[in-house]
Amino acid sequence: MQGSSRESLVSVRGRLTGLPDRASLGGVAEGLFSVVQLLDREGNLRRTLGDASLPAPARASLVEGLLGSQVDAGALDLVKDAVSQRWSSARDLVDAIEVLAVTAVFLVAEANGTLDQVEDELFRFARTIAREPALRAVLTDRGVEDERKQALVNGLLDGKVQDATKRIVDALVVTPRGRTLETGLEEFADLAADVRSRSLATVTTAIPLDDAQKSRLAASLSAQLGREISLQVEVDPKVVGGVVVHVGDEIIDGSTRHRLAEARRNLA
C-alpha cells in the first residue's frame, strides 16, 4: 500500500490493537473474515465502499444496513471505520480488512502465549506446501469445493497445530485473493512478527543451527538492521556453507555458493 492507503491502514489497525481485552477478539476476527469473503465476492459493493467520492458517513451507513445484525459488533465498528477512511483503491480497502482479521487472530494468540508457535507453524506449513505440489494443487483448485478444502486442512492440521494457525490456513484456502498459498502464508507470518514489533527473517543454511547459533544470528541481524528480528530457519544443502537471509525485500547472501559465483564473475 502507498500514500493514503498506508495512512488509513495505520489508523484502523491502531484502533484494533488499542482494544483492551485481546483474548476475546475471536468473534471480531470471524466477523472481519466474513466481510473479506463478502467483498472479495461482490465487486460492485467493494467498489462502492472504496469510492472516496462518496461521503464517508454514507459508506458507513451502507455497511451498518448490510451487516448490522450479521457480524460481531466489534468487527462492525472496525469495518465502518475502515470504509470511512480514504483508500487508493477498493483492493486496498479489502486488504486492510483482511489485515485486521489476521491481526485479531494473532492478538488472541499473543494473549494466550502461543504466537511464537503460530508464526513457526505458518512458516513450516508454507514449506510443506512448496514441497508437495499435489497438495497445493488440491488446495488451490477453483473447481474443488471450499468444504472439501477445509476438510483436507482439518485432516492435516487438527490437533497438530494451534487453532490460530489452522484458522489462518483455512482463510487463505477459501479466500486466496489472487495469491499463491505459500505467498499468503509468508505474508501472514510477517504480520505475526509485526504484532510483536519485529521483522521476520527467513534464514537458509546448509546445516541446522542450534539454539545458541540462532540467538547469535538474531542478535547480529538486529544490530545490523536496527530492529528486533524473529528467525525462521530452513536447511538447503545447495547453500554449501554460510547463510542466506531474507528480511522483507532485503537479501543478505553470505553463502559459499554466492561467494564462489562472485569470484567466478571477478575472474571473468
Keywords:
alpha+beta; Peroxidase, domain 1; four-stranded mixed sheet; 3 domains
How much beta, percentage-wise?
5-15%
- Helix tally equals 13
Shape category: globular
Distance between the termini: 41 Å
Order of helices and strands: HHHHHHHHHHHEHEEEH
Uncertain stretches of 5 or more adjacent residues:
none
Question: How many β-strands, per DSSP?
Answer: 4
Alpha-beta content class: alpha+beta
Task: Provide the residue-averaged pLDDT.
Answer: 86
* Order of strands in the sheet with most strands: 2-1-3-4
Describe the main β-sheet briefly: 4 strands, mixed
Layout of helices and strands:
Layout: H1 3-17, H2 26-41, H3 43-49, H4 56-67, H5 73-83, H6 90-111, H7 115-131, H8 133-140, H9 146-157, H10 163-174, H11 181-195, E1 199-205, H12 211-225, E2 229-235, E3 243-247, E4 250-253, H13 256-267
Helix pairs in contact: 1-6, 2-5, 2-6, 3-6, 4-5, 5-6, 6-11, 7-10, 7-11, 9-10, 10-11
What does this structure look like?
There is one protein chain. 65% of the residues lie in helices and 9% in strands. The protein is α+β, with helices and mostly antiparallel strands. Strands 2-1-3-4 form a 4-stranded mixed beta sheet. It starts with a helix and ends with a helix. Strand 1, helix 12 and strand 2 (229-235) form a beta-alpha-beta unit. It has helices at residues 3-17, 26-41, 43-49, 56-67, 73-83, 90-111, 115-131, 133-140, 146-157, 163-174, 181-195, 211-225, 256-267; strands at 199-205, 229-235, 243-247, 250-253.
